User: What shape does this take?
Amino acid sequence: MATANTASGLAALPVELIQHIGSFLIPACVPGERPYPCYGCARRRPGCRQWFLGQLDISRLSRACKPLRDVIQPLVFQCCPDGGPRPIRRLILLARTLIARPDLRHHVKFLMSSDVYEDLEPADNQFVQDAIVELGLPAVPDSWISGGEPEYHLLPLELVLAHTPNLEYLRMPLDYDWSLHLLPHLLKTRPPFLPNLKSLEVFHHFTAGDRFEISMDAVETIVTAAPSLEALCLPNPNWMSGGAFAPLPNLRRLYWQSGCATEMDGLAAMLDAAPQLQALALPWDAMDDQYNYCDDRGTADAWEAIELRKDSLRELRLDIRENTLQGSGKLDSFLSTLFPPSIREVTFWRLDGEEMRAAMVRLAKVVAVGRYPDLKTVVLAPSERSERQGYNEWHNADKWNEVKEELEEWFRTGGVKFELRWDSPYWMASSLD
Assistant: This one.
């Protein structure tokens, strides 16, 4: 009798309180246990990798206690990570559930998709084909399941996206020849179908001998469907724009993960499409392809692209290799004149070389006389990518100690906090919030 009363009493509590109690079943990562926080740890949101473990407990609770099922079950679908075995089949199972249970669709907020392809059961193949037809598209061939045709590689993910109207965060793979099959059709027949998507992270599906590129047509389709997008993370700006990029009216944060094969026209097109851009992270190594370095004109184009947003940019994170801006004149020109006047925070990843150190001292002196009145913080740190992958590319970091006190004094005079860090600020966490 006591057990029955307890269950009845819990079920009678307000929905918000029951959901709050259920959230305690989800373990959060403890700061300091990993070299970098997993998705969501910075804000303790359900993108955390530990969420998957908590999902199992919540799912069991929703099945074991029927009075709580309708309240607890939506928590199971709030975040759909890419961990666990058979990730593509998990996407198809998720699509099955969302199609059969429309009441659960608006609860899906976070979705992470893996780039691992796998063999599927005939029933899964038939389900995807039937679901595509029900959405008004011609039937796809049986060969879509092989993963060999770029047009269909993302089909299970597209099917899920067609049924997640409240999605806020999406992480997905792309390769240079992949395209979308379903979503372009939805854009023609529906208003923007991802109205609440705030953060999009794309990672490169790399295979041996692959090109360091992604399909920007696919990215444009998704951002067009997501007019509220505020944060965008892409592998690298190495695509030919062919003209203007899709409008990004609300984009605030743009993060390029790699500077390899940077294409200036594409970089400029994207910055031009984002009039409200406030934060830019750009690993810039001056390479125009895998083997050749840019000439002076290409380097200048990169900084002129940044100047396009000089009225809105507040934060820059730049991974600059020593050979990017050879010569103290070029360094001084960049550090002292090309920074947007409204800049508030600058982070340099793995900045190295004697000329770099001398140029930074001259920048500090410019700041000391009030050149950038809004500037509050200057940080030197290892690159985020280096720390994630477990090696240090900042080979001569200790040499910055030779000028550290001088830099601190000049920056302090200008009201700026200067930090020399041996760990990398995890920019990705804040960029996708």
Notes: The mean pLDDT is 76. Residues 278-433 form one domain. The two ends are 46 Å apart (CA to CA). Residues 46 and 79 are 6 Å apart (CA to CA).
